[in-house]
Write a structure and sequence with these properties.
Elements: H1 3-6, H2 13-29, H3 33-51, H4 54-58, E1 61-71, H5 82-94, E2 102-111, E3 114-126, E4 142-156, E5 161-177
Parallel strand pairs: 1-5
Antiparallel strand pairs: 2-3, 3-4, 4-5
Amino acid sequence: MDYLAQVKERCLAERTVATRERYDKFIHDAIDPWHKHMLTVLRDHWWSEIIGDVDATMATLVKDPVYQFHGGSLHTAVVNTTEAAREMYASLYDAGYYPGGVLENMRIACADWGVVIESDLTSVLPGAAFNLPNMRIDPALPYQSTSQAVQSQPFDRETGLMKGEIVYLGDITEIFIARR
């Protein structure tokens, strides 16, 4: 399959495919079948964000998933209903933003309850998403930013689906207007 052609955020295309290859290696190397399953669902969820497929995104989630975002420099809100999660993703995708991003220096830990990923996360988001009062950010422009991130994805053992995401973002280490 030509993954490179499917990536919507062209300025990150090659690095995004490299992230998919890292996910595939983690899945391949997993010994426990439940861990392998969770990693596969997580990769599919991430990929759905890359290609902007809201139905595929929602297919990886339980009813009423919980999303929390902490730290970093983004304006965020808690999402805790199926409708709010669908709206969050649909509004990003419809505006031309695909939040999966590039994950480099990935470290993954699996447990019976879910998966934790530590990485350097690079993504493109609208200027309006950032809360950086000491910088001149145009809310209408797309910005490519990088920050350290820890993402916790709890899973429902009965359905095999993600219960949502709890994301902790460090300070932005790089930000500039995206070349799209």
